[in-house]
Amino acid sequence: MKPAFLLWPLLIAAALYLGLRRFERAMVFVPSREMLAHPGTVGLAYETTTLTASDGVRLRAWWIPGPSADSPVMLCLHGNGGNLSHRTDKMRLFHDAGAAQLWLDWRGYGESAGAPDEPGLYRDALAGWAWLNAVRTVPASHLVLYGESLGCAPAIELATRVPAAGLIADSGFTSVADMSRRVLPWFPVRLLSLKFDNLSRLPRATIPTLFLHSQQDDIIPYEMALKNLGASGAAKKRLVDLKGSHNEGFLDSGPLYPKAIRDFLASLPAEAKK
Question: In which domain, by residue range, is 35 found?
Fold first, then answer.
């Protein structure tokens, strides 16, 4: 048998593997490089800064001071689509709820370098925490980790590694595998390289946790929020039912959404607000 004949199956298998990886990433990561707005667009003072992840990737971030010097601080990790500039309405709501905020753009999003992958997002979240710790000297008792949709996974992972006062999981899924079974039942789940397995990590996330999810969520089913709530290792945990769609639920819910954030921040131990 000729060597070239033997090589073709290997080349085809390699092409299929690379195609599968590209398809998987395209389904999970939907970045945009175009910056459409900034916190000043919604009347917020802010500073632009650059973070450096542990592997050297440089990330664009916005620091938004709180309404007072003793405001709790939210490390905000956004979802899989767009970039920072698509979250200015949420930044306004968080400020009105009493929080200072650090928002970072994932690698490959907006003005951040690199390309997104699962280990990279965990490194990016850790870089945000490190910056708050070293540059802003935010104590753990003052810090709340916030994750939106895909961003829930790095927020939950970070909650198992660093000290913080609280965790907010906004419209998160249980795992990529569970989402794949729901959205693409024909997809070979066993071949997935991306895990983002919130369900398996939540038992080790023991800080006070607020879950936010809409029963009308058109992307991530409400049942996943119930499973995440049940899996959480937090002694103090709560699920607040939002209204409306996955991407607009924070607006569709009216005052319910900012009230849930404000109440959660106010419920933190007294030392978190000093």
Answer: 3-273
At 61 the three-state DSSP class reads strand
What CATH number does the domain containing 191 carry? 3.40.50.1820
Please give the angle made by the CA atoms of 198, 211 and 242, to the nearest 5 degrees. Answer: 125
Q: Taking the model in full, what pTM does it have?
A: 0.91
Residue 206 near residue 234 (C-beta atoms within 8 A):
yes
pLDDT digit string, tens, across residues 12-23? 544 544 445 565
Structure confidence by residue, pLDDT tens digits, 238-274? 999 999 999 999 999 999 999 999 999 999 876 544 4
Min mean pLDDT across 91-105, 106-120, 170-184, 246-260 is at: 170-184
Domains in the chain: how many in total?
1
Contact (Cβ atoms closer than 8 angstroms) between residue 242 and residue 213: yes
Beta strands in 153-255 (DSSP E): 166-170, 209-214, 237-242
Cβ neighbours of residue 6 closer than 8 Å, sequence gap 6 or more? none
